[in-house]
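Bench log, entry 3. Co-assembly request; chain sequences pasted below exactly as received.
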Amino acid sequence: MDVFEAIKKRHSYRGGFEETPIPREDLHKIVQAGLDAPSGRNAQTTQFVIVDEPELVRSIGHMHDRNKAMQQARAFIACVLDHEPEPVYEGMSFQVEDCAAAVENMLLAITALGYGSVWIDGWLRVDGRAEAIGKLLNVPVGKYVRILLPVGVPAEQVKQPAKKPFTQRAAFNTYSDRD
Amino acid sequence: MDVFEAIKKRHSYRGGFEETPIPREDLHKIVQAGLDAPSGRNAQTTQFVIVDEPELVRSIGHMHDRNKAMQQARAFIACVLDHEPEPVYEGMSFQVEDCAAAVENMLLAITALGYGSVWIDGWLRVDGRAEAIGKLLNVPVGKYVRILLPVGVPAEQVKQPAKKPFTQRAAFNTYSDRD
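Structure output for the full assembly:
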């Protein structure tokens, strides 16, 4: 799929999934896209756990009381970061940015391969969910699940919400020249 | 360009650029890819300034004493965030992630259109550079330039640094099963 088409088609999918399992070859391809993302100082510290063992997948999915994409996911991809990342430049680390760039690449790969997903982030940080999932996945002390992607073949058509127009969010040469 | 090819080809380019100017149509297409990125709760708070006015481009580029891609950039794209973003979910905001996802989309668009770029982030946070560039671009009080992308047609071939292998950064079903 053309890159601009994938970027345009990608959308947050919270509907149900078909029972179709996801071949490991596809999961590998999706996560490789995440590994190919840039990282601050090329540190490549973002780690991934791919979950496709059905019972484990169900245990994670059933933690969500509403989101059908979580509940019916056929696989999950978890991005794992350090609680106290090593600085890589002038005392700074860029793990949050690195992880987000990797997730965006994976969402585009998911879209191109005909799957659906939704970026699960804030939900993990509430009620000890990241910790509970980290335990299920044997994430070591000092690391935590930052972002989770449920993956499956969409069973429903969803309407993408409208995006703000270009001129409200972008301008040439001066910030002030926008609607 | 196929999305997987763009993901694989994208790399940090710090070399010189040809004098070829960048048509606004292409800059528009690149920034539209950024606007199409997901954002937490679809808040779409990341703002963009596209710099192609030659004198303004030079003023920004010459702030870097080393990076040729900065010095010879034909255009810049600046991502602008809020110093104190509105919470969008359980007291959290996701502007840093939103911005990073938008930047990754733009880097893929840049790659697909035959341009080169490099993600400039930490450098902006040192010696008041973000503030100085914000002033040049009339970024209002309360907002700041978080990420900057120099853009141009690469004049040099660079060798991509090696990436860590899949099995060092990813594993199935348990974190511990990795090299």
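Chain B touches chain A through 75 residues (CB under 8 Å). Residues 3-169 of chain B form a domain with the NADH Oxidase fold (CATH 3.40.109.10).
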